[in-house]
Design goal:
This protein is mainly alpha-helical and 145 residues long. Helix content is 58%, strand content 6%. It is elongated.
């Protein structure tokens, strides 16, 4: 699709319609030729600026990876959510009715499984993966499955 109207709405409609390419009319000729060749091969080619918008939209709406995909247990996921909400080990232990030593064990396992350096990186991971979202409260943490 070659378009004058390079909007997110048109992009969404075009992708759902199954286009093999999406380029604004202001694209350089070499981009247009590359898109035509890609479409002829059965590939998809998006304008680089469009690709960035598609990736950004995906990141906003993509579900968090399942615990099974990362090897994180349901209990470790609960602990991660509570860490992301700023609870101390003592508070997490009280909330989950476990000992502080068990909380520490879960945190150490999370750091290893997710290849994170420290508690701050755990918080960042929880938000970036969508496990926790701004405005959530610790009360939103679902119980262990």
């Amino acid at each position: 699709m070659l378009t004058t109207y390079d909007t997110d709405e048109n992009l969404d409609l075009a992708l759902h319609a199954g286009v093999s390419g999406f380029l604004p009319k202001v694209s350089p000729p070499e981009h247009l030729f590359a898109a035509i060749r890609s479409a002829a091969r059965g590939d998809v080619l998006l304008d680089p600026a469009v690709t960035g918008r598609v990736v950004a939209a995906y990141r906003r709406t993509a579900p968090a990876p399942s615990p099974a995909a990362t090897g994180v247990t349901a209990r470790e996921e609960e602990v991660l959510r509570l860490v992301a909400h700023g609870l101390s080990n003592t508070e997490i232990a009280g909330t989950l009715s476990i000992t502080e030593a068990t909380v520490s064990t879960h945190i150490n396992r999370l750091l290893a499984k997710l290849a994170l350096r420290d508690r701050a990186h755990m918080v960042r991971h929880a938000y970036e993966s969508g496990l926790v979202r701004p405005g959530d409260s610790p009360d939103d943490v679902p119980p262990t499955r």
